[in-house]
Design brief:
Blueprint (H helix, E strand, L loop, with lengths): L1 E6 L3 H15 L3 E5 L10 H6 L2 E6 L7 E6 L19 E2 L12 E6 L2 E7 L9 H23 L2 E6 L23 H13 L2 E3 H6 L12 E2 L11 E2 L2 E6 H4 L2 E6 L15 E5 L4
Parallel strand pairs: 1-2, 7-8
Antiparallel strand pairs: 1-14, 2-4, 3-4, 5-6, 6-7, 8-12, 9-12, 10-11, 13-14
Length: about 280
């Protein structure tokens, strides 16, 4: 089973790259964030032609999340994948600060509930959005606890937090800013503990890749940040402990941060062997 998370920073702008990824990497489920389109604007036709259905939570020009699932893995009776969502789709996070922002969607892939999440940025430590971000994490922990109690769960997405200092290219540059503050990190840890869930990258790779370089998932478009590897690890795949035992590999599809119209995030890939 292959799960991928990717903040595409506009599905319509990045559709050719998404179709390329579906053809090349053949995920069983692709979790997208920042789709940035209304439900009527989702490119269901081209994605269905590629062999996938979209289960989405769309909110217009900002935010938006979706899970693309292989049609041959769809539940029986789910209807036309080009026009209909799965009967297992759950849109929105109970108790979230602003339900209109379209930041959480759940669907079922086989026996696993797969979630695509886009956690609020927070903007600044003294901004109201920062408190909304912490509230979102609290509600996320409550929902994760419910899902993990019911069976296998995989929560993938852009959490807008670097879990540790090793996940940021320059800790001093981010002192006093969002993404590295202790309340954010504590809130993320509470989500992992609620499942309990496992940070798949941390479980499989530790903090660094085989060459000893830090592994990041986001780089600023400016100042050659990608080529200098001045990035952040803010995209996570969080799995229940039993599913985490099935990890074969966790890696980033680095080439998708290159080429024509790249997102500023890279796809995060998790490969799992079949359950016993």
């Amino acid at each position: 089973m292959r799960l991928i998370s990717w903040n595409v920073a506009s599905l319509r702008a990045r559709l050719p790259r998404v179709l390329e990824l579906l053809a090349e990497l053949e995920p069983d489920a692709l979790c997208l964030q920042e789709t940035k389109c209304a439900e009527a604007q989702l490119p269901r036709g081209p994605i269905a032609e590629a062999g996938y259905r979209i289960d989405d939570h769309s909110g217009g020009p900002w935010n938006g999340v979706a899970v693309l699932t292989r049609i041959d893995a769809a539940e029986p009776g789910d209807g036309d994948p080009a026009t209909e969502a799965s009967s297992h789709t759950v849109r929105g996070l109970p108790g979230e600060p602003d339900p209109t922002q379209a930041r959480w969607v759940e669907t079922r892939v086989g026996d696993t509930v797969v979630v695509s999440v886009y956690v609020p940025n927070g903007k600044a430590l003294d901004h109201p959005d920062y408190q909304a971000k912490l509230q979102f994490f609290r509600e996320m922990a409550d929902r994760v606890r419910v899902l993990a109690d019911a069976g296998p769960v995989a929560v993938l997405g852009d959490v807008n937090v670097c879990p540790t200092d090793q996940d940021v290219w320059n800790v001093a540059r981010f002192e006093g800013h969002t993404h590295t503050s202790e309340p954010e990190r504590a809130a993320l840890r509470a989500v992992l503990e609620a499942g309990p869930l496992v940070d798949a990258h941390d479980r499989y790779n530790g903090a660094r890749d085989l060459a000893g370089e830090p592994v990041f998932t986001w780089w600023d478009y400016r100042a050659g940040s990608f080529h200098k590897n001045q990035g952040l690890r803010i995209d996570l795949a969080m799995l229940d402990t039993a599913t985490a035992e099935r990890i074969d590999s966790v890696w980033i599809a680095r080439d998708y941060r290159k080429g024509s119209k790249p997102s500023d995030h890279v796809p995060l890939v998790v490969d799992l062997h079949p359950a016993a």
